[in-house]
Structures are given as C-alpha cells and as structure tokens.
Amino acid sequence: MDKSILSEEIQEFIASNINADVSKLALLKNKFSNVDWTTILNQIAAKQKAKTKLPTWFHTSNIYYPSKISVEQTSSEKTAEYKSQLVSGDKLIDLTGGFGVDDFYFSKKVNQVTHCEINPELSKIVAHNFKLLQIQNIECLAGDSTEILANLNRKFDWIYIDPSRRNDVKGKVFMLKDCLPNVPELLDFYFESANNIIIKTAPILDITAGLSELKSVKVIHIVALENEVKELLWILEKDYYKNIQIVSCNLTKDTTETFTFELGNSFISNYSLPKKYVYEPNAAIMKSGGFDEITANFNVEKLHQHSHLFTSDMLIDFPGRVFEIENSFEYNKQNMKSFLENKKANITTRNFPETVENIRKKWKIKDGGTMYCFFTTDANNNKIVLLCAKLK
Fold first, then answer.
1. Considering the entire predicted model, what is its pTM?
2. DSSP string, 267-303
C-alpha cells in the first residue's frame, strides 16, 4: 500500500478526473514523479466503479482503492445491507474479507466482526478504509482463514464465507468443492466455531447442485438488484434437518419484492388462456423455480407449464413486471403482417421456438417504444403473441 497516493495533490487530481476517460489519461505524462502512473489511473478507475455501487466509499475522502477488479467483484452496498439483516449477536468472522463492504454492514448488526484476508496488501487497505469510515468494531487479520480460525480458538455467532472459483475450473457449471476455500470439505470444522454460517455464491451455482454438497441448509436467499440476480445466500444452522425455505428478493430503487416458499412442497398449477393481465416473475423468482408456488400464493393462472407467465382478470400486486393485454393472436404470417410487421416494440420470448433476434429480422420490428410483446405458448400448445401495455 503506497501511502503517497493519499497526498493532497494526488487526491485532488483523482477527484478532478473522476469523470475522465482513463484510457485517454493513460496517454498523458505522469506529473507525479514519486508515484507510478498506473497506480494513480487504477485509483481513478476503481473510484469510478464505486460511484454508484459503493456511494459511502465514493463520498469519503482519502479512501484507498484496490484493483478495479476487486471493486467489481465486491458486494454492492445494497446487497451488503440486505445480508446484514440476516445476522445478529456478539461475534461474526468473515473468512473471505475482500474489500470489506459486507463487513462494514455486518458491523452495524454484530458487536465484533473479524475480517480475514489472505492478501496482506488488501488487508492493510481495508483496515485503512475502516478507520476513515469510523468503524471501530472490525478486526482485520491477514493470512489463511482456515489457519486463523483454528488459531483463534473462539466461538462465533456467525461465520461468513464468499468462496471464489479456482482459476483452473472452467465452464459455466461448477461445484462448491471447486472453490476456495473448499466449503463442503471444511463444513464440520466450521461448525466447531459457529452454529450459523452464511455462504455467498454467484447466481450461476445451481440450487440443486449446491444442496447436494451442503448439509444443515435452513434458508436460501436469492438476491436480485434491479431485476438482475447478484448472489445466492445459503444460511446453514448446525444440525438443522427440517424443510428448507426459499426467499427470492428483488431490491429495486423504490421497493423490495419478496416471495417466500418451502422447498419440496407439491403444488399443482392452474392453467388458463390469456385473460386481461399478464405477469412476468422477477429474476429472483425465475432463479428459484417456484412457479407452481406462484399460483398457490397469488390469484393467477399459468399460461403454460413451461412458459412461466401468469394471467388474471383482476389486477393484483405481483413481484415482477405487470402488463395489460391489449390484443392476443395466434402466431402466423397473416396476423404478424396485420399487427406487428414494420412496427416498433419491446419483445420477450417465453417457451417459444424463435429467438428475439430472428423475430425482429423476420418481421422488420424495431426495438423500443411503448408496446410490449410476449411471444409464447398457451395452455392449448398454440404459439401466440400478446400485445401489451406495461403497468409496472
């Protein structure tokens, strides 16, 4: 950690170039002879990334940023605040501390937080930033978290882990055993130090695959931010063996959409042809797979087993996008020429044999406008198009 970067002159330069194109700045001559130019540029790039993702850090003077990638990989403040609502008690240890955003929020709910980070440079940076943020109940320890946990020999109320995929694991499908630390292998060891564990994983991890590797799972939180799933939170409780609860949460600018159900309960959906309104579940629900549970909890019916769109005659408050159907018709050449060819529309396909790109090209439909079109399959297995006005 080069503290020269914190000089008043360099900090003023970073602030004055916060909206600049870093690639263009890279072509300029470094006017600060005592600090590497790339280091200064990295501070600008990382701070730019923090502007919307980490506003508390962005608006605090003399924050030292790690690499831009570290900032990109860290939790946003919104998702970190959500996680903090899940914990309480006296002590929490974060075994994969990183930039410390999650711990900043945990420290508001737990009396003492221990931040473990294997990279000693990053550990110093985080400790420096916590002082500036006036956080006094976080202890920063550098080193291997497994060794730290064993040497501390303390009881914690919570263990928090955000395992990272090993570099040698390629492809979209991965298992927790392919991550560092190897949580499935270390689970019994972790439960010696805490009865409650939170594991954060990327949304790419399949829920069924995760459950096949873990035990004592009590709740799985699927957290989306502005309808994009950001993380899965696996809440484990020592010796827990009862039903698992799924909580899908979509954090938006104005509200929080939450839908909860128990895994394994069997529900049978009701099906219907399109009615007055059509509903598209938010991304967190789509990840949860709780489609039959939707019909059991809301006064709606499914259009088709695999379409994952819902309909009703009465308008309801629904966790997702809501549309009023203005017209619906069977997908064929004559109807497309009459209603959509050469028009402007927002297109979504659900359980439909053609892609959005192919549909646009085939019928010369421009993107945008106020019309929303769903190309889907109905309860009678007919390919249909719904022309809608967006209500939410």
1. 0.91
2. ----B-S--SEEEEE-HHHHHHT-HHHHHHHSS-EES
